[in-house]
Amino acid sequence: MKLHEYQSKQLFAQRGIPILKGKVASTAAEARDIAVELGGRAVIKAQVLVGGRGKAGGVKVAKDAQQAEEYAAQILAMNIKGLPVRKVLVDQAAEIKTEIYLGITNDRAAKCPVVIASMAGGVEIEQVAKESPEKVIREHVNPFLRLRDYQVRNVAAGIGLPHEHWKAFGEIAAALYQTYWDTDATLAEINPLVINGANQLLALDGKIVLDDNALFEHPDLAEMRDLDEEAAAETEARKYGLSYVKLDGEIGCMVNGAGLAMATMDIISHFGGTPANFLDVGGGASSEKVAAALRIILSDKNVKAVLFNIFGGITRCDEVARGILKALDEVPTGVPMVVRLVGTNEAEGRKLLAEAKMITATSLADAAQKAVAAAKNK
Amino acid sequence: MKLHEYQSKQLFAQRGIPILKGKVASTAAEARDIAVELGGRAVIKAQVLVGGRGKAGGVKVAKDAQQAEEYAAQILAMNIKGLPVRKVLVDQAAEIKTEIYLGITNDRAAKCPVVIASMAGGVEIEQVAKESPEKVIREHVNPFLRLRDYQVRNVAAGIGLPHEHWKAFGEIAAALYQTYWDTDATLAEINPLVINGANQLLALDGKIVLDDNALFEHPDLAEMRDLDEEAAAETEARKYGLSYVKLDGEIGCMVNGAGLAMATMDIISHFGGTPANFLDVGGGASSEKVAAALRIILSDKNVKAVLFNIFGGITRCDEVARGILKALDEVPTGVPMVVRLVGTNEAEGRKLLAEAKMITATSLADAAQKAVAAAKNK
Amino acid sequence: MSILVNKDTRVMVQGITGREGTFHATQMLAYGTKVVAGMTPGKGGEWACEGKVPVFDTCKSAVDSTGANCALIYVPARFAADAMFEAADAGVPLIVCITEGVPVQDMMRVRNYLDQKGAKLIGPNCPGLLTPDEAKVGIIPGYIARPGSVGIVARSGTLTYEVIYALTQSGMGQSTCVGIGGDPVKGLNFIDVLAMFEEDPQTDRIVMIGEIGGNDEEKAAEFIADHLTKPVVAFIAGQTAPPGKRMGHAGAIVEGGSGLASDKVKALEQARVKVAQYPEQIPGLLA
Amino acid sequence: MSILVNKDTRVMVQGITGREGTFHATQMLAYGTKVVAGMTPGKGGEWACEGKVPVFDTCKSAVDSTGANCALIYVPARFAADAMFEAADAGVPLIVCITEGVPVQDMMRVRNYLDQKGAKLIGPNCPGLLTPDEAKVGIIPGYIARPGSVGIVARSGTLTYEVIYALTQSGMGQSTCVGIGGDPVKGLNFIDVLAMFEEDPQTDRIVMIGEIGGNDEEKAAEFIADHLTKPVVAFIAGQTAPPGKRMGHAGAIVEGGSGLASDKVKALEQARVKVAQYPEQIPGLLA
């Protein structure tokens, strides 16, 4: 789960990382008021959960409150990578001498946290790593020892930060690690961490991505989720413990298992169709869950056919069949359905579905081809 | 540094370990008042920093406030193993069904904390371990993982605690570990942990020993030191960063290095004398420190001779010599002094002392024999 | 021969008295797996699976009493890390964790600790292990598999079943099926299992099922090129997955331009691994 | 030959710009020890010991630049644990910590971590190492020692000097003198060092200096009986120490009836080790 810049910076500030004064506005008038508070000159920044807002024109420096209002109005009218901008952060403007990158993330291969830093801040670190790998310093952290002061010094020395900034940098890095660890983040990033005109270090932008698996430990953070930023169907799916990602295609998919769900999308594409969604009903799916999943799939008006691909392990095919029948009772639909049931209790499942008018298939390839055909005929 | 029972139990209670109601009294009248508050019946327990107070008669159950006053008066008049009783703890009386031992200490050999438990509580655990080792369960704790719930279950299962008590026992063990770790204790012990008439677990007695090396991190705990419980000279020595232990003999010792200081005591004894103290002036001892050490040694009226045994490493012999001369200026004394200086800057040291009338020696055996002779002649 | 589990494997099931724990332990017994102990704190002394399996309060007592040498974990996510620590402390050399949703910071500590103890871990968020006709340790449906010579290693559970099913339909049996799980920080990885299959005399061909996220498949490709003599066929799920979105598995996400299916396919093809476009092509590519 | 340190040992001094650090680094240089680097955070780029030793900000940079293979620590107690972690992380295989007063809970974590890293630790609260005429790594006064064939291992610093001095006076030189320190949780212990002396061709006799507290001497006695062929002479300090009192060293305390000098002497004598009654008897017992 991604947090907005303003949310991330709040969490940073709570742990002592210096940030600029600023507030969030949902309207141009609010932005103007905040700019007045800040003394006129302000930076207006779109709050959307995608990267690249700078290039898209979502960040503008206003010289006074009047201009702040104008820019806020412009930005609040934008769509960035398909996402409408609903909020802007109005921040003090800072004089920037140096832009540093400082981030902490999980290193999957090393199986531990890694601190990543570079003096080439302000741009995407992946790009710096690709173009000038020598400019990027990595320090692995033992998850039991946690981040030690000497490791921060390794980082500071590695990026060539002048001694005079080590103390402030050390405090910020320690607080960033604390934020990362306390929130069960998979990424906590300050980019850029700037040295301003007064030679102080400030977190100008911030990004936190939380581990969805750990949200149960952090109800306060779970509440920070911005429901405006995701499809309503995704919000609905989460309520039922379903993994759902909306896509742009025509064939709705209900699959058990994440890998098989991806493979189902891929095979639809392979046979010339377009998947409308990723949906994993999970292991041991109950009929209620299956019914909810079907409602969610059908709530997408682009869906012209639905492909059920269930391979029973924990999930039992008869349970799934009952869920499908239940959902069809509740949500009458004309959309054609292709069903493939294999595995635990597959015979019972097939029997239950025998009466409903559904297209059946045994192989995955067969099922995908039938679904593609059904969607085209629709 | 040892804490009193009442101090240990306060620290336990702060972390949620159930203890009995009780208060500390310094006079019999206070004890009476506390007993009245507790409803009459009360246990009066001597607060002294040595074991074996029970056998010595330092714990008595009073049936009413009148008797509480009498017993408190008796106990406050006692000496236990040479230590006068200055305080008593007046506790509620409890009906005891079972006495459990539960302690956490540092296992030197395993280099980690160890939880020790036994259903044979209420007596010294060393004794149980010697007589019935099978009754004592040990669970080592990884210092990074800390005490896990399953380890507490291993302990509960190991001592054969009935299931119904596992939850309460688990909470107490977790809180005890927290106390142990938070305070940098070398021992945190509940003995006995009782099951009372209402089937509840209660810490009836408590003992905490703190790591002197870690006291700098715990100024609040350092303040709990009971200065009444140690020789005034030991308190004075601590101010100067000197390691001093008062003994009952006649030959004062000033030595650098703890091992050498012990060996010096031993050799005095070997040659028929008795050491008056252990004193390590430490590495790199300054002349101020040496002067303070000499004053402390001479403050013991039993001292009939002083043996200086300095082997220079970090400590420089000339610094020590200057300290001795300075101290002698400040504290004129007729006590004979035997000096042995070897090691870094030994020549300079000897030269400085040449003028003072001191008995010199080069070998340790020679020095010890001379000191023993000087004390006898005195 | 086979790898990791066989007919002599003695399994302790942690969380045996839970709904899924009981269901799958019963299925494992029916398959012939030696389920020698169950573990549920506070239920020590009871019996599970219709009186067939003794339940213990602690892993230590279960291992001491039954000689269990494999722990299978079905406990809820918030207790999973401790279950793994406990199994490792009890000296169990192979730990299989089915539980989904374990926080990744927990897993970083678990992996670190288990490595210190020398315990092997499979999972979490995995379907476990199956050596056909010998031992089923986890939730892979036993009836779809047949003994044979194809080793399977996969990040995805149901895709594993899909491949086993397709192989069995084509008359190709399996040596051992290993579901390593879909989490970003986990136990054994492709390389570890590939090395075991290379050493296993029963295995003569290998199927490897990867997916988007991380670069374990790229590393496996390198390892295959350098160390494997047996033929490998692969499949990578998630060609059509959008970037920045977690596709079910915690580890299945394309981030910062890395973890792409296309990069993995390319790396594997460079290592002369045949890559299937969909699972049912695999038997044909193996033949 | 010798053990642990010799003329090729390349020493990095952590805390070199402190008063004691500078003093002893200078003495080590004068003795001929290869002091190749100093480390003091924030002073990287400076030079210590009259321009003879480059100072670095981090152990990593010091090791990378100078190839230091031994870390010597003189930092205050509250920073000592981190200094050891840092040296180990920088890949230094031998760490010598002179610092006194390190909290024992810190040391439990340090030992655990250093064992994982495979780094050897001497100390803390120790005088360090001396291989006469080759390397002085710590604070043992060099001029009292002579090269020879007696290995010394001791918990106490000044008692080590005392023994070296007595041996040299009697014409017996030393192979290596090892002060393992007086803390309850520390690095190498008697057994580790005794095993090294047993393997070292230069060493033909061994002196072991113990003291009250713990039971390392008892374990050493058992080890000597089982594994040592070279003669060992021992001395145990603290025969007259009262129970329950810490005698200077954090580890020197008789508690709950264990750690008594008399038990240690008994165990050693049972292992046929000659035990001196005072240090100056040692040369006579060795002869």
Annotation keywords:
heterotetramer; A: 378 residues; alpha+beta; Dna Ligase, domain 1; D-amino Acid Aminotransferase, Chain A, domain 1; Rossmann fold; 3 domains; six-stranded antiparallel beta sheet; four-stranded antiparallel beta sheet; elongated; C: 287 residues; alpha/beta; 2 domains; seven-stranded mixed beta sheet; 9 helices
Task: Provide a descriptive summary of the structure in words.
The complex is a heterotetramer, with two copies of chain A (378 residues) and two copies of chain C (287 residues). Chain A is α+β, with helices and mostly antiparallel strands and 378 residues long. Chain A has three domains: 21-92, Dna Ligase, domain 1; 96-222, ATP-grasp fold, B domain (D-amino Acid Aminotransferase, Chain A, domain 1), CATH 3.30.470; 231-377, Succinyl-CoA synthetase domains (Rossmann fold, 3-Layer(aba) Sandwich). Helix content of chain A is 38%, strand content 25%. Chain A contains 13 helices and 18 strands. In chain A, the strands form five sheets. In chain A, strands 7, 8, 9, 10, 11 and 12 form a six-stranded antiparallel β-sheet that branches. A four-stranded antiparallel β-sheet of chain A has the order 1-6-2-3, with helices on one face. In chain A, strand 17 (337-343), helix 12 (346-354) and strand 18 form a beta-alpha-beta unit. Chain C is α/β, with parallel strands linked by helices and 287 residues long. Chain C folds into two domains: 10-122, Rossmann fold, CATH 3.40.50.720; 140-286, Succinyl-CoA synthetase domains (Rossmann fold, 3-Layer(aba) Sandwich), CATH 3.40.50. Chain C has nine helices and 14 strands. Chain C has a seven-stranded mixed β-sheet, sandwiched between helices. A seven-stranded mixed β-sheet of chain C has the order 9-8-11-10-12-13-14, with helices on both faces. In chain C, helix 3 (77-89) runs parallel beside helix 4 (104-117), helix 6 runs parallel beside helix 7 (216-227) and helix 7 packs parallel to helix 8. The longest helix of chain C has 14 residues, at 104-117. Chain C is globular. The A-D interface holds A 142, 145, 148-151, 153-154, 156-157, 163, 166 and D 41-42, 44, 57-61, 82, 85-86, 89, 109, 113.
